[in-house]
Design goal:
This protein is mainly alpha-helical and 291 residues long. It is built from ten helices and two strands, in the order ααββαααααααα. It is 46% helix and 4% strand. Helix 9 crosses helix 10 (267-281). The radius of gyration is 18 Å and the shape is globular.
């Protein structure tokens, strides 16, 4: 399925239209416990998806406060370093750029997950792998049936590497983002009284059993949880990542006011801001409770 085929589906277009109409009036009650990434925690209620970034915090490696303005600058620097290293086919520099992304992302154990996978590919093969995956992830030409291979591994850290290598706003699809978009799909489904299973185009599986749409509605239509190590996970995760990118891109093209209103910024920057807003909502999707 390519982007044109994706938007031939009525449910997809209906969902994008619902986002454009509903997000500006969305009631949000952020309640995030204090942690090293969110010092002091967050407890605030406000109206409108476009106000989420006012409360964005991710105080990780390479940032001082972790607010959105500082974070977007850090992400841009990480992206530039990674693309430059891959373009030069500099394996050690590419590995270093990836490790800096993982450090920003909060990777907790360098002995498992993304670190050993990337180290095994150090050298020209690492550069080739990231570049080939980047070609398949291009939102303009991606085909969800042809993502894995070249993508052969995906997890919460590798999704950040691939997203920051991209220049078109390809989103980071981690546990918080996954839970948030699945919850918005569920709100749309309920608002439009759509029964039965979710259309596959709008099925966004969780990546963590502790963060699912069930935290918002226990009786929600459940898109499932991606299992680390499963042979199907690289494809399913990559598909969700691309489909979310298409949806965000379509939504912000229809309304510049969904995120960064009245700001003269590029579409990819606006898309990254949209994803970051989903990230904050995804800490605890019960913040969207409409009951």
């Amino acid at each position: 399925m390519n982007r044109n085929t994706f938007f031939e589906t009525n449910h997809v277009n209906d969902f994008v239209d619902w986002l454009v109409k509903s997000l500006p009036a969305l009631n949000i009650r952020l309640k995030i416990n204090a942690s090293r990434f969110v010092p002091g925690g967050i407890a605030v209620t406000f109206n409108g998806f476009n106000n989420v970034l006012n409360h964005y915090i991710w105080k990780s490696t390479g940032v001082r406060t972790g607010d959105w303005n500082e974070t977007k600058t850090r992400l841009n620097a990480l992206s530039v370093d990674l693309r430059d290293a891959v373009d030069r086919v500099d394996g050690p520099a590419t590995l270093s750029a990836c490790e800096n992304i993982l450090a920003w992302g909060g990777n907790r154990d360098s002995a498992v997950g993304a670190h050993p996978f990337l180290r095994e590919k150090v050298g020209a093969s690492l550069c080739e792998y990231i570049a080939d995956a980047g070609d398949s992830f291009s939102l303009e030409s991606a085909d969800t049936s042809k993502l894995a291979p070249p993508v052969i591994r995906m997890n919460a850290m590798l999704t950040k590497v691939h997203a920051l290598y991209a220049v078109d706003g390809l989103p980071i699809y981690d546990s918080r983002v996954a839970a948030a978009i699945a919850s918005l799909v569920e709100l749309w489904r309920r608002a439009n009284r759509i029964n039965g299973t979710l259309p596959p185009e709008l099925s966004f599986p969780a990546t963590d059993r502790e963060r699912t749409v069930g935290c918002l509605f226990p009786d929600a239509v459940d898109p499932g949880v991606l299992a680390y190590g499963s042979k199907s996970t690289p494809h399913r995760w990559s598909s969700a990542k691309v489909r979310l990118g298409w949806i965000i891109e379509a939504a912000i093209k229809k309304s510049r006011n969904l995120v960064l209103p009245n700001q003269n910024v590029s579409d990819p920057e606006r898309m990254r801001a949209f994803e970051a807003s989903l990230f904050m909502i995804g800490y605890d999707v019960s913040c969207l409770c409409q009951r």
